[in-house]
Hints:
Elements: H1 3-7, H2 14-35, E1 42-46, H3 52-60, E2 65-70, H4 73-82, E3 88-92, E4 105-111, H5 120-130, E5 131-142, H6 150-162, H7 171-174, H8 180-189, E6 193-206, H9 209-218, H10 222-229, H11 232-245, E7 254-266
Parallel strand pairs: 1-2, 1-4, 2-3, 4-5
Antiparallel strand pairs: 5-7, 6-7
This protein binds S-adenosylmethionine.
Amino acid sequence: MPDQTRHDAWQAGETDERFMARWSRELAPRFIDWLNPLPGFEWLEVGCGSGALTEALLGLTVPVSVVAVDPSEDFLALARERITNPRASFRKGSAEALPVANTSCDAVGSGLVLDIVPDRAKALAEMRRVVRPRGLICFYVWDYPGGGVQFLRTFWSAATALDPQAADLGEDRRFPFCTQEGLTGLALAAGLTDVTCAPITIPTVFRDFADFWQPFALGTGPAAAYYAGLAPAARESLRQRLQDRLPIAEDGTITLEARAWAVQGISP
Ligand SMILES: C[S@@+](CC[C@H](N)C(=O)[O-])C[C@H]1O[C@@H](n2cnc3c(N)ncnc32)[C@H](O)[C@@H]1O
């Protein structure tokens, strides 16, 4: 399997936990704050992973139920282990073929998934199929094109300074539609009304440089794929450049920010 594809698989477990899941757990409650949905919904969640948004839905929206779907058995096993709330249930399935009946839920939500779904229009059409008339459809993705995920932007700036070809490999090039205009357009093209798209920013505080650097060796996605393909000397140059340029505080911590775009709309 080519490196890029292997690293796009978003594997469950410690790798994802240390690289991205710890930030998605900060983001999910902020998304619910912004959304401020009515209580008593039957929710469907698309691409639950290890359950960051599932937990936020259960803890913050007073739902009747949350059916959480993911294509990965590993992620589903992790989510089932972490979340034992009886209102939650987990099913294997993909965004483009949701394993639920037509008009069977009040709201559909998805966190950090639509960027990696190959057929986003089909995914939105599926969300419309399963939600009841006037139901809520909502999702969020990281603002990669706007450089909103500062730890990734810093990584790629350093990589590109050392290797200009790295400029073509970043998340901004892979996911160019993750902009306010691109995501609003996606929701409108799917026929949603009352569409709003807003930024949500979270602090990403790293304990020390190792806490910043080591996850690139473990993680998934374009940055981790690039790291994995570097020879040891190039890896060391990149590590040194980052260490020299990051805003490392006296206590060793590195405080950056990560921004996502959150979208909500109403199904006809
Ligand atoms: C970055 S993780 C996000 C997980 C979780 N929602 C969160 O916020 O932490 C992406 C998830 O999307 C899932 N996924 C990948 N392709 C998918 C598809 N076609 N349909 C639905 N989910 C998909 C992966 O298995 C993974 O669990």
